[in-house]
């Protein structure tokens, strides 16, 4: 996306009175104002840790039920350290990864380029691996990675029974289990278990603060005290021990206060929105019903045409439908990821149908 188009999209969303997918973008001044309401800013910041960073690490470890948690500036860095830890502790420089997983799709294969590790395909199916697939890997791996949910397969989750089985299969072959839990916060309704119970299945977990919680940036790698002791020097070596991270830490703490309690509500309403979108002529929704508050939507138009129509409707009607359209593998269709958050809670099925009709009419 060009800078001009990105700016137009941000302005269109910001000016809209109603937003179906996503949240209203905030300016830097608004983000700073959020920090003022999140904490007492007269306290001391962090200095290579401590202060709000330590408070965030302790709070997340408590939420997840782990012995410790370590703040990283990015999830990419946190996941590299998780895989290095597994390789160093087991002596096996290979990890079982999904080809649609974050490490393969969005981290430029950092685990291989920077740490010399090998990725072994856990499954080629558009879902997380099964216990049988892990048992049949055919070569040893130090870590089995499970992404909850698997974003690039459509934000899909296994059942609780399937997740328990795959974790058991990983341990049966002598491997650790690492959850790529960037969006694990909103996975608990589908799994039917509390967050701590889900996390207890894994040896380590990475969580994000900006994907669902509305934070500025940052991630945590959580697990045992031994993992934390290993992670801190490796975070430094990778350049992630930053002098001060209090803006990211404070916004993450605010997200835990404001957004985390509402995610279950978003997941529930996503099913209403998905049903309404599935009724739009020519539309396809997956998964249906959604496993989290995010899912995929296909419409039978080129991506560029849909993107322009959505922008024009937003600029004229002040109603934001959904952006980020890409031409799909399905001939004649474009796809987007729908995120049901606070702005969408006021939308009824009739509202969704009306907004879709505006976009279709704009296309002509």
UniProtKB/TrEMBL annotation:
Record carries keyword Phosphoprotein: no
Record GO terms (molecular function): L-allo-threonine aldolase activity
InterPro entries listed in its UniProt record: ArAA_b-elim_lyase/Thr_aldolase, PyrdxlP-dep_Trfase, PyrdxlP-dep_Trfase_major, PyrdxlP-dep_Trfase_small
Cofactor: pyridoxal 5'-phosphate
One cellular component (GO) term of this entry: cytosol
Keywords: Pyridoxal phosphate
Domain Aromatic amino acid beta-eliminating lyase/threonine aldolase: 48-288
Gene3D superfamilies: Aspartate Aminotransferase, domain 1, Type I PLP-dependent aspartate aminotransferase-like (Major domain)
SUPFAM superfamilies linked to this entry: PLP-dependent transferases (SSF53383)
GO biological process entries: glycine biosynthetic process; L-threonine catabolic process
UniProt superkingdom: Bacteria
PANTHER family cross-referenced by the UniProt entry: L-THREONINE ALDOLASE, L-THREONINE ALDOLASE-RELATED
Assigned protein family: Belongs to the threonine aldolase family.
Protein name listed in UniProt: Threonine aldolase
Organism for this UniProt entry: Actinoplanes utahensis
Lineage summary: Bacteria, Bacillati, Actinomycetota, Actinomycetes, Micromonosporales
